[in-house]
Write a structure and sequence with these properties.
This protein has helices at residues 3-31, 36-61, 71-90, 99-120, 123-146, 152-171, 181-207, 211-230, 234-261. It is mainly α.
Length: 262
């Protein structure tokens, strides 16, 4: 079985999972008297589902052609905006982030956009999606800080992980071709380390019965996986795609907890 076939199967499984979660989320809306977080969550799943469907159909129809700027990029931008709306609807007391956090968010997001452009050469669509993802990152970080999901040292660990990941990916463009596998492997190790970091924080919040921290950490975990997926290729891409799919039920479960606790 080729990597492309594995990818198509993985995307198909993700579509089925999203369809199920969308159905459950719509049911949650009626159970929660149209709670805004549940409504946004339903739209979030719907947008992700439609984007995956578009990608799958296009890839089946034109498997050897690169997808142009089209509905999938518009869908991704809308997806991230809806994800931010879901998070922000659950935050009860919004506060401004200190300048250090803001600088870190913008630096990480812009660095991602630069890498996407270097890989794909698609300047316009990468800038559009990157602009939206800045707001998504900001919403997650603000929510994590409001819910006290991290202690001071953990914010430092997160900053180190983000910085090390960007440096490792950047080095793949600088080092000689025969040494490119070294920073590339380091980047994948950092991606896995980030998943472990967020997963640990999530299960700690679960043990301490902190529903809001669980919700925001589930988003942080899956957006880290999504960013890692964007940076990957081949079997690594399929690994992160699978982990992303596994993370989707966490969104529904944690949103349900928050909605039911209100």
């Amino acid at each position: 079985m080729t990597i492309i076939q594995i990818t198509l199967i993985s995307v198909s499984i993700q579509i089925l999972v999203l369809a199920l979660l969308l159905t459950l989320s719509v049911k949650l809306i009626s159970e929660s008297e149209r709670n805004l977080t549940a409504v946004f969550m339903s739209f979030y799943f719907a947008l992700w589902l439609l984007t995956d469907l578009y990608w799958l159909v296009y890839d089946l129809m034109r498997p050897d052609m690169r997808m142009p700027f089209a509905a999938n990029e518009i869908g991704e931008a809308a997806m991230f905006l809806m994800g931010a709306a879901t998070i922000n609807s659950a935050v009860k007391h919004r506060t401004r982030l200190p300048m250090g956090y803001l600088a870190g968010i913008h630096l990480f997001a812009i660095s991602n956009v630069v890498l996407w452009i270097l890989w794909s050469g698609e300047i316009v669509q990468d800038i559009i999606v990157g602009t939206v993802i800045i707001w998504f990152f900001y919403s997650i970080v603000r929510a994590l800080r409001w819910s006290q999901a991290f202690c001071g040292r953990e914010w430092i660990v997160l900053a180190v992980l983000c910085t090390a990941l960007i440096i490792s990916q950047g080095l793949t463009f600088i080092v000689p071709e025969d040494a490119r596998d070294i920073p590339d492997l380091c980047a994948y190790i950092i991606m896995i380390a980030g998943i472990v970091f967020f997963a640990y924080a999530f299960f700690r919040a679960y043990r301490e019965k902190l529903p809001y921290a669980q919700l925001f950490l589930s988003f942080a975990l899956n957006i880290w996986i999504t960013v890692s997926k964007y940076m990957s290729g081949g079997n690594w891409y399929n690994l992160f795609l699978t982990l992303e799919t596994i993370g989707f039920p966490l969104w529904y479960i944690t949103v349900r907890k928050v909605v039911k606790s209100e």
